[in-house]
Amino acid sequence: MNLIHKKARYYYWLVASFISKKWVYLIVSAVLSFFFISFFINSYPVINSLFLKKKVTVGILGKYSLQYLPLEITTLVSSPLVAASEKGDLTPVLANQWELYNDNKTYRFHLKTNLYWDNGKKFTTKDLNFNFEGIETKVIDDNTIDFYLNQPLSIFPAYLSKPVIKYPLLGIGGLYQAQSYNLKSKYYVTEINLYPNKKDLPYKTFKFYDNENDLIIAFKKGEITEFQTYKKNLADKFRNWKNINYQNRTDFSQIMTLFINTQSNKLNSKDLRKALTYAIPNFSDVGVRSVGPISPLSWAYDDKLKAYTRDKEKAKKMVSDEISATESAELNFYTFFDYINIAERLKSELEDIGFKINLHILSYIPPEFDMLLTLWNPPIDPDQYYFWHSTQTNQNITNLKNVKIDKLLEDGRKVTNIEQRKQIYVDLQKVIADEVPAIFLYYPYSYTVSRK
């Protein structure tokens, strides 16, 4: 027993002596270890994304602010109150359910409980910030909010289908969460880093470039691993590269559209606008032909809608019948730099049938024009009230005024029965095709180039 006691005392004094001599080092080591472990735990997402997880870096062309990011990013970061499908189905996501009151002019939405932002704070109706013209909102409680409409609008829930984002980039229930971002001039985003909320997803970075040349250089240097473009000649530069994936698809969410000012003293004649349609060439090299404003993927698409058949002789005669030798056949044609090649092709064809075309390249939609060529992104729901109704002076850029079209647009917003709504939009497509406020050229081919 004495032997055990002596050994215990020996080790006690040995440890005590060591501590008395090295206590400073021990304290410093303990403090450093504590900070190292804390740093490692807090930095794990970054370390994991940089060294352990697969990383995809996507190049995006264009200037964007945090308030107006591409859907490609916002749909990864957050979820909407309601999801709208191309078949017309509405599915609650962050919302649990909704009800109608006050002759269908008040919508009451109930949020799902136990929803949290990426920063851990609870999501409530006070966080919602919708700015719809002519619609008032009232928070009832943390999970209930009312929307007061001036008139019944059966498709209103479809307007709540955009991801809910809290500035700067907080989301709810997304596949990813924003880890960091960089700004240029305190406004434009240059880079966004996303960390996956599911273990099997890769870490994602989005880098933004002002022009195509910078985007291509970035891909060649390995700064980005993937980019998307609508220009085949651009994508084809990498088609034969080793370790490159080359994919193409038709983007039915956008239509290359030639908008026509129906109140222009040069194109206020329906026959002159129809003459333009007969002169339009085939754009099968850049996309799939479109015949109307509603996508063929939509439940409201009219598959019997007839397209104008190209007939330049007929177009020439219609122009000569409408415009006398003393009148001006000069048209101001505007477009954006990215669409200059398509605009040049249209200019050539329209000059062949008797017009003189002044082509202008701008970075904004001009207040006045005869024709405007741009890539148009129509809503998923076939309701296009804002684009064609005569009262919508801001978004109805064609200045279209047609009583029948107005009535169809109004009815399409009131009716809830899907079959009745479809017939309304079938009729709408026919009237728009006859009125020609715009020529819907094609759904563009989209090309994605990525490293294997």
UniProtKB/TrEMBL annotation:
> Which UniProt keywords are listed?
Membrane, Transmembrane, Transmembrane helix
Provide a GO CC annotation, any one.
Answer: ATP-binding cassette (ABC) transporter complex
The record's InterPro entries line, in alphabetical order, gives: Peptide/Ni-bd (IPR030678), SBP_5 (IPR039424), SBP_5_dom (IPR000914)
Q: Name one Pfam family in it.
A: SBP_bac_5
The record's GO molecular-function terms, alphabetically, read: peptide transmembrane transporter activity
Q: Does the keyword Phosphoprotein apply?
A: no
Any stretches that span the bilayer, and where are they? 23-41
Q: Which residues form the Solute-binding protein family domain?
A: 90-394
The processes (GO biological process) annotated in the record are:
peptide transport
Protein name in UniProt: Solute-binding protein family 5 domain-containing protein
Query: What lineage does UniProt assign to this protein's organism?
Result: Bacteria, Candidatus Roizmaniibacteriota
